[in-house]
UniProtKB/TrEMBL annotation:
Lineage of the organism: Eukaryota, Fungi, Dikarya, Basidiomycota, Agaricomycotina
Name of the protein: HAT C-terminal dimerisation domain-containing protein
Highest taxon above the source species: Eukaryota
Length: 60
């Protein structure tokens, strides 16, 4: 089940990214990085799955 701790961690990780304009990335990429960061180290989302998603997105 989701909790406020999960949301707080996601926003904390997102804040560490600073912002998409400062890193020269699109807002879509920035949102994806925040989402991936919030799923990191959970039993629902493995590092392998993240790698596959990123590789697929890059090849488009």
């Amino acid at each position: 089940p989701a909790s406020s701790v999960d949301a707080e961690r996601a926003f904390s990780n997102g804040r560490l990214q600073i912002g998409h304009l400062q890193h020269g990335m699109s807002s879509q990429t920035f949102k994806a990085r925040v989402a991936l960061g919030s799923w990191r180290d959970t039993p629902f989302f493995s590092d392998q799955m993240a790698s596959e998603i990123i590789a697929k997105a890059i090849s488009r």
